[in-house]
Write a structure and sequence with these properties.
The protein is an alpha/beta fold. Helix content is about 40%, strand content about 15%. The protein has one domain: 3-Layer(aba) Sandwich (Rossmann fold), CATH 3.40.50.360. It is built from eight helices and six strands.
């Protein structure tokens, strides 16, 4: 039996969301998944990016490490996990642009029945973590994904994260995800993989 195929598509500017993405990937791999990590690309020009200290260098480094997500990646996957920093209480435009590019697969019904999950980060406490994750549930429903929340089915959930997905507050980029937050992200990877496996082959579950 082939491994469950997990696509993790994220946008990250200052590494918090990237770190969560990698922890989810580790959790999925530990559960037996084949994982693709993809970073959504900037929509603005480098002239604007250069006005924000560190943006260009961070983007170049991450873009060298992670390919851009494609329509073929989404078709390949048994589960898609979306990750985003909060932008005014909602999804980043970079990740939303990728989701919007999946219209062809949506029209052909090729995403129906795949698992879907979300994670994210904010700079400040009460900065919109849960609102951002919930804002992605709507597009996932339209795509036909079976939404996989985290609930409280793992002890890690009583220390960090949200029932909707892994999260982190960076305190203006002064903090990186600690062990408790990474444990939630790894649990998310395991949970999504187990659900994707069950959806693909109920007998395996």
């Amino acid at each position: 039996m082939s491994k469950p195929r997990i696509l993790i598509v994220f946008y990250s500017r200052n590494s918090s969301t990237e770190i969560l993405a990698n922890a989810i990937a580790r959790g999925a791999a530990a559960e037996g998944a084949e994982v693709r990590l993809r970073r959504a690309r900037e929509l603005v020009g480098r002239d604007l990016m250069q006005q924000v200290p560190g943006w260009v260098d961070a983007a170049d480094a991450m873009n060298e490490q992670y390919p851009a997500p494609t329509e073929a990646d989404a078709e390949w996957a048994d589960a898609i996990v979306f990750g985003t920093p909060t932008r005014f209480g909602s999804v980043s435009s970079e990740l939303k642009a990728y989701i919007d590019s999946l219209g062809g697969l949506w029209f052909a019904g090729k995403l129906n029945g795949k698992a879907g999950s979300v994670f994210g980060s904010t700079s400040s406490r009460h900065g919109g973590n849960e609102a951002t994750l919930l804002s992605l549930y709507g597009p996932m429903a339209h795509l036909g994904l079976i939404i996989v929340p985290l609930g409280y089915a793992d002890p890690a959930m009583f220390k960090a994260g949200t029932p909707y997905g892994a999260t982190h507050v960076s305190n203006q980029d002064a903090l990186t995800p600690d062990g408790d937050h990474l444990a939630v992200a790894q649990y998310q990877g395991r949970r999504v993989t187990s659900v994707a496996r069950a959806l693909r082959d109920p007998r395996a579950a």
